[in-house]
What does this fold into?
Amino acid sequence: MPTSTRLMPLVFVAVLLAACTAPAPRKEDAATEAKLLKYAGPPIESFTYLGRYDGFRTLGDKEVVIFATVSDAYLIRVRDPCINLQFANRVGLTSSNRTVNRAFDFVISEHERCRIDTIRHIDYAAYKHDRDAPK
It folds into this structure.
C-alpha cells in the first residue's frame, strides 16, 4: 500500500481535530467583559424583549451583550456547544410573549441555536457615563 494512502486517514483526523478546537479569547473581549461586569447586576430569569434591539457585541464564544435600548443592555452567557458565536454577523433571540427566559430561550447565531445559561442586566447608561467622563 502506498505511503500516501496510509497517511490519508491521519491527515483527515488532524484536519478534523484542528477544526474542532476553539480559538483563544481575544484580549479585547476579556477587557470589555471585565468593564461591563462592574455594571452588571445579579443573574435574572428573564427580560422583556420587543423583538428588536439597538445592537449587540459578542464576547468570545460564550457571551453576547444585547443592547435592548440605548440605556439597557443584557449580558447573556450561553451553554456549550456554541462554537460560532464570536464570529456572528447577526444574532437573534427566541422569546415567548416578548419575554426572553433563561430556561427556555436561545441566542440564534447564523445557523446555530445556543441555549441561554445566564442573563444579567447591565446598567448601560452608568457604564457610558463613566466611560465618557473626563479623566
About this structure: Residues 3-20 form the longest helix (18 residues). The chain has a mean pLDDT of 78. The radius of gyration is 19 Å.
